[in-house]
Amino acid sequence: MKCGKAFRAFVGGILAGISIAVGGTVFLSLENRVLGAVFFTVGLFAVCTFGFNLYTGKICYVFDNGRDFALDLPLIWLGNLAGAFLTGMVLRATRVGPALTERAQALCRVKLEDGLLSIFILSVFCDMLIWLAVEGFRSNPHPLGKYLSLFFGVTVFILCGFEHCVANMYYFSVAGMWSWKTLAWVLVMTLGNSVGGVFFPLMRRLTAQKDRKT
């Protein structure tokens, strides 16, 4: 049973990685950065609508769930990496591959030339917005509000230049720029996303506890 659960978590992570990679492909394919950010939303739309496992969304709820949920997170991260990597490799073999690779390389060079503190901070803010998007989708009672939450959360983090570890897994893959340095940068992005993802939930918990005491 546990093996089956782990397998489902990993496969759900692969599907989420593919979904985010498709969003990243749209972003790379469009000259207009605003339109690219808007259509990137298809990735999180697929994840939330079909219940795929995206690390940057799941980490937001790590303190609301038990030990098994937390133990699934590394599997989900690896599944995200596998899905994003495979999508990048497959697209490199198509007629759209050269253009995607060229644009991704320019984007990835900027990231790899940045300092780790900058990368970390940008990643923190990214997952704050992911939490707003995912929690808005979960808790908003109005269907339009649910999808506007996804739209604003994703579009804003992209236009602000914030760092999303799974999106970057795809960019580095389609760019063909994986290295030990790249892995280190992705791990720092993951750490920043993790901190940003739990920030608002923890603040809500703290304020709720203070309200109960008063």
The radius of gyration over CA amounts to 17 Å
The assigned structural class equals mainly alpha
The separation of the N and C termini measures: 45 Å
Based on the coordinates given, report the CATH architecture.
Up-down Bundle
> Could you give a short account of the major beta sheet?
none
CATH H-level superfamily title: Glycerol uptake facilitator protein
Strand element count: 0
In total, the number of domains comes to: 1
User: What does the overall shape look like?
Assistant: globular
Low-confidence stretches: none
Average of pLDDT: 94
The string of secondary-structure elements, in order, is HHHHHHHHHH
Please report the first level of CATH classification, the CATH class.
Answer: Mainly Alpha
**How many helix segments?**
10
